Protein: 5-hydroxytryptamine receptor 3A-like
Amino acid sequence: MRVVHVSRLKACYPSAEELEEIERRKVLEIFEEEIHLCQCDLTCKEGHSGPTYESMQTVFDRISFRPAVNLSNPTIANISFTLYAVLGVNEKTQILTTFLWLRLYWHHQFLVWDADDCGGVTRISLPVKQLWVPDIIVYEFVDDDVSQQCPYVYVNHTGHIRWDRMLRLVSACNLEIFSFPFDVQNCSFTFGSYMHTIRDVRLSPALSFEEMSGNSKQYLETSGEWELVNIYGETSVLKFGIDEWDIITFWVVIKRRPVLYVVNLLIPSSFLMLIDILSFYLPPHSVDRASFKMTLILGYTVFLLIMNDLLPSTANGTPLIGIYFSVCLALMVISLLETVIITNVLHSNSKKYREVPHWVRVVILKHVARMICYQWPKELVKPTASRGSTRDDKADRPDSTSPSWVLAPATPVHTPVQHTTSNIGPGGVSSVPELRQICQDLSDLRAHLTLMQKEDVLQEQWCHVGYVLDFLLFRIYLILISCYAMVIICMWCIWVNQ
Structure:
């Protein structure tokens, strides 16, 4: 039995790596030989225009191979598109739907012929299914392409191919809705190969970004909610592990037309707020202002429910217009609470006409009334005290524009009733007893009139306390609404300028 040394076996039989390398070289040699034969077979016959069917059939049979004579040289593909329509923007799902006219160029090194030998034919159309096409996709694509496909491409005699296709692009986009309805969206379209790395396929824009933006603005047919602002982009390299892909990123900037939302949302809301402000001019003592304001709040709530479908909503945050509506509703509620307070003050007669506390007369009827320039009724203004009043009396005395009862509660005047008796006769008995009854009735009537006068004075005091508070709270309410409106307008202007 012969014994063979292990080293001799290794010398006679190559390893698995060497076998793989030998096999790869053989395949490349066969492939390059076939490519050379394929490139030389694209000929024309005399009396016929264009390449022969047999020569092109050889190219069609090798559709699976990248059309490059030297596989170390990448195929360069040029991309350009025209934004034809903005079909919709879904803020809830963060999806942008557009319609593009996409144009793709690349060089097929096997489809080359001499135009002079082929009857002057420089361009022919061929079915796209019979040719190798770079696998260019949009990385943000999130739905099936249901647009109509163009089945043909144009092939130049130099081997340059142009493929025009229509693309209904449903792409993911990070939508910012805080400044709605004055928002500007910036969505990206990233074109790149799915399988071929940078060593096989290189990408570049076919037109400048300014030209693509100008063409899109010229051919944009939709005049709905969105308008195109600009298109710009850049080329870059995407790295994933040890492989690199060549990509082109286009940024499409679109701007919302806010007229629809201003007319349907902002103007009606502003009108309701204006009515709420004007309701302060209703006399609170003779008109049920609270019922009016409650009806207004109910109408505003129904308005928000109807217009809820027009407002966008995302998980990232609430748009500024939603905050605007919420604050407007809160201001209406505050206005209703103010009306409740004033109504409670004006109807203090249910509390047996309690006298106005001294601190209320000093703070509200004197200082607050002077601060808000409250005009007292002329019939309540009385002349000041006499010259003989002391210095202390002058310190507590209100000014000449305030009523005389501002700092001193009204006290009823109790005048003792003198019972008038008739002349007493010799027997000591009243001659006219009816006179005593009349005097008693007059005394009761005087006491009743005095009480009514006191109640009127107290009621008038509480009414003026309510009026002064109403004027004060109304001015505070106006200041709050003015500051709030200025903040909202400034925030919207800042976002629009950005």
User: Anything to note?
Assistant: Residues 433-497 form the longest helix (65 residues). Residues 264-387+398-424+432-497 form one domain. The chain has a mean pLDDT of 76.
